[in-house]
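Customer escalation, tier 2.

The customer says the design service returned an amino acid string that "doesn't look like it belongs to this structure." They asked us to rerun it and document both sides in this ticket. The original structure tokens are below, unchanged.
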């Protein structure tokens, strides 16, 4: 793990209750000032480009992206977390999309957070669980497996030999985030700045979008809430043939500590270099997990980062982070499934009707069913195109362009009103598309969509295992009422 600060060769300071700073003005002024300086810098870069420096704008965006990521990395709170939520993964850097420059910088927030010293982690564990660490664990590794924006994870063994992962929250980070979120302007300003990265973007209520992001972040710092999410996903997927979810160790969980069974598997870097057949199996498992949960329940895991996956050499995938989970209202869940079904069936009138009733298309909009269908063909290209589909960087780029581009593919979205409940949906779609592209996956995406909606029989080995499991569990499919 790289422990250096973004943009610096100095060793980072250890996050503590003192170094994770709080206060509305202290944490708002930097991002407001950054936005103002960026606006001025963008204007100067444009003038230089017109007077003989064709690379001026690209250089400006590269410098701004690096400073932006560095600022968020130092914030160690809601801004860093929001930066992660707005980042995507491995978008083609040659796509020409300005957003990809920022995305490349922001994605480093997922893995380059400086860890706290073990003594600090030990003190947090003992204070939260009320017992000496030597009683709680037979052994605990002092070097964390991972360190992120809110906490870090240590490998450990219980006195009875059970292999576990221990997630410890940074002291002071919850207070800093709550202080940030008490400032109603902070995230709205952040979202506005994020949207300004692109030439044009989807139309949404920035305050409502900020409120949705805020709700997810509040849940992520609430380890009791994450514990409930782990239980729900573990209950849903218990006994699944290729989706693995850890079990909570209830006696070793508290307000700032989560202990769960250790999920074995190779790393993301190793997974990307495996043979094609194994990569296809992993990709199919990820797809069933990402898009099957809200077909079989109202749950939606909104953090599709490969660092949260463990890849089994038997084709299984373990999912180990449930801090960012969305529970859809039934009307939203059923709306998502109906929109995708109508698009897959080529029923533009039904698609338009569902998008109207779901709040995407206003009554006074001049969008037509043809406009809406054309946008869906771009956004859902893998499922609507020829099968099997081979994922490449072009898929992630096309999806990004359909949401944030400045071309005909994105013209429709700029006339839509994206409901706040759907804000995180674009995040998981972008993330999953990019992950499958990195795996070079070749999947029959339409057949998979059909079988988890209960309208077609599975074609693959993984598909047959999944459907048999769901039927044995008596789970509903797709459009079935909950």
């Amino acid at each position: 793990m790289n422990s250096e600060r973004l943009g610096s060769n100095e060793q980072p300071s250890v996050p503590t209750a003192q170094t994770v700073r709080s206060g509305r003005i202290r944490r708002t002024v930097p991002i407001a000032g950054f936005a103002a300086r960026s606006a001025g810098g963008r204007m100067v870069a444009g003038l230089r480009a017109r007077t003989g420096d064709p690379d001026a704008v690209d250089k400006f965006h590269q410098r701004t992206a690096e400073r932006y990521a560095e600022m968020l990395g130092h914030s160690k709170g809601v801004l860093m977390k929001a930066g992660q939520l707005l980042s995507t993964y491995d978008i083609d850097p040659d796509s020409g999309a300005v957003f990809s420059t920022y995305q490349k910088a922001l994605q480093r927030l997922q893995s380059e957070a400086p860890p706290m010293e073990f003594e600090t982690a030990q003190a947090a564990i003992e204070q939260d669980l009320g017992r000496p660490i030597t009683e709680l664990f037979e052994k605990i590794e002092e070097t964390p497996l991972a360190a992120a924006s809110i906490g870090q994870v240590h490998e450990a063994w219980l006195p009875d030999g059970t292999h576990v992962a221990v997630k410890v929250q940074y002291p002071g980070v919850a207070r800093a985030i709550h202080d940030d979120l008490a400032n109603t302007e902070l995230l709205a300003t952040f979202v506005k700045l994020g949207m300004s990265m692109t030439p044009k973007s989807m139309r949404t209520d920035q305050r409502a979008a900020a409120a949705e992001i805020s709700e997810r972040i509040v849940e992520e710092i609430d380890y009791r809430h994450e514990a409930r999410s782990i239980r729900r996903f573990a209950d849903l997927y218990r006994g699944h043939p290729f989706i693995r979810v850890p079990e909570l160790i209830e006696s070793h969980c508290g307000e700032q500590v989560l202990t769960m069974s250790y999920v074995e598997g190779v790393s993301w870097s190793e997974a990307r270099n495996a043979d094609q057949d194994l990569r296809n199996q992993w990709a199919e498992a990820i797809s069933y997990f990402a898009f099957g949960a809200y077909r079989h329940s109202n749950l939606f895991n909104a953090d599709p980062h490969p660092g949260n996956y463990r890849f089994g050499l038997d084709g299984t995938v373990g999912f180990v982070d449930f801090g960012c989970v969305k529970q859809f209202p039934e009307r939203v869940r059923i709306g998502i499934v109906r929109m995708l079904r109508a698009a897959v069936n080529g029923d533009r009138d039904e698609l338009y009707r569902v998008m109207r009733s779901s709040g995407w298309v206003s009554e006074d909009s001049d969008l037509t069913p043809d406009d809406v269908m054309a946008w869906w063909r771009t956004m859902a290209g893998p499922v609507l195109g020829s099968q099997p589909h081979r994922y490449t960087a072009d898929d992630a780029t096309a999806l990004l362009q359909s949401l944030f581009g400045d071309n005909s593919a994105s013209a429709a979205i700029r006339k839509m009103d994206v409901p706040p409940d759907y804000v995180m949906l674009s995040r998981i779609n972008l993330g999953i598309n990019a992950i499958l592209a990195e795996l070079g996956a070749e999947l029959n995406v339409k057949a998979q969509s059909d079988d988890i909606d209960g309208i077609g029989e599975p074609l693959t080995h993984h598909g047959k295992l999944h459907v048999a499991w769901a039927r044995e569990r008596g789970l509903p499919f797709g459009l079935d009422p909950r």
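Tier 2 assessment: The sequence is consistent with the input. The chain has a mean pLDDT of 75. Residues 243 and 289 are 7 Å apart (CA to CA). Sent an explanation to the customer and offered a walkthrough call.
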